[in-house]
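note to self — DONT lose this again. spent like an hour looking for the file last time. sequence + predicted structure for the chain T wanted, 300 res
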Amino acid sequence: MQSVATETRTNREVPRKSARVSGIDLALRAIEVRRQVIEFARSYPDMPFHLGGSLSCAEIMAVLLSGVMHTGVDGTPWERRDRLVLSKGHASLALWPALVQAGLLTQEDLDRGMLGPGAVIGKQPKRNVAHGIELSGGSLGMGLGYAVGLALAARRKGLASRVFCVMGDGECDEGSVWEAASFAGHNSLGSLVAVIDANGLQLDGPTAQVLDSGPLSAKFAAFGFDVQVVDGHDVEALAGVLSLHSERPLAVIAHTVKGKGLSFAENDVKWHDRCLDDDGYRRAVAELEAARKEVLANAE
């Protein structure tokens, strides 16, 4: 059982800083998320990681935690903070650096690694509310129901907190997703935002071939959600739709590329869960550095 110290955080315990950054900075933060993802993989060369899905949601993580959410480290009272539920827990490699950028984790936390009693992070999320980790991850299809519960609790407490749940499109094969969606729509939980990292691939292949259940936008709309479809790698477009408020729950279908940022991994299902060798690491570093320079050049 976690101690009270890990479950709560007061405003005096964290620095007050703005969570809002520019579009250029958000793009750079997404690249930094990807760089840290490959650093994790390099640190454990014999351990396969879910690299494809972590790389595809880099912009989503950076925009949510640095551009949209009131995290409790921006002057928002801790109880009134927004919540992030990472339902696709296998993409935790992208969560950790984004939490550092938001001030909820430190670089020291990352440097402790993923193994051992002193580890704060892991291959899957382990609930630690003080660090912004609202739910232990691993089993897909569980996060939306939990996020619905958080949104309902916030309503009953009279809080303006928003709850963001990041899921994968393959994860939406799970029936529990639609039970939760039905409850959210029926109860008009306007503080709930379901963000779908729709990269088109899952463990066994293309989502449309594994289980083609129709367009997600139409399905969420049928369950009572307002729906927005967006380029999941356009940070300004993401920030715009994720900042929208509605009286109904919102579903953001963010179209992304699995393995985004690494040319040899993009749209390749083999990178769903894989080790990164030395050659791949060197290529990844070079490509991400080129992407960083391109963002800076376009900003001039």
